[in-house]
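Example record used in the benchmark description.
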Amino acid sequence: MIWLILGLALWIGAHVFKRFAPQVRAEMGERGKLLIAVVLVLSVVLKVVGYRGADFVPIYTPLPGMGHVNNTLMLVSLFLFGVGGTKGTLYPKIRHPMLWGVVVWAVAHLLVNGDLASLVLFGIMGLWAVVEMLLINRSEVWVRPTNGRGVKGDAMNLVGTVVLLGVIAMVHQWLGHPVFLGTYS
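Model output (structure tokens):
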């Protein structure tokens, strides 16, 4: 569990560093971007290793059939992740699509995982995303984007979402966690 917590701390620290020490981050320039990227990759590795290595400590039992809700929410989450890149119809309407994607991802996973490590990982990541949105909103005025691809962007995003969900499902299957069951046990 210590690796999971360390990974979460690095993830959060790297993301809020710019908010709490903007001058220091600005002085780091381009090499700062590389350093932050390395810290973020390390944090993901630590989160995965920590989560997979954590003892199973049950906290609650997910309701039957939540796997279907999870999969539907994952489609929504992945679509939100792609909004900024594909610039579809939601692009000028949602300020933080990737962070909202993290919140949906976290909720989806909390619906099907009732153990302590899941509560730590998904709960903290979801909470981090909400706090990050609040910090950004407080520090920056949003200039609503006016350009975009419209429905063409949405179509591109939908194709990417379905492909990515398929890849994620295969990885989960490979790791021993099939995602297309209605109930997990």
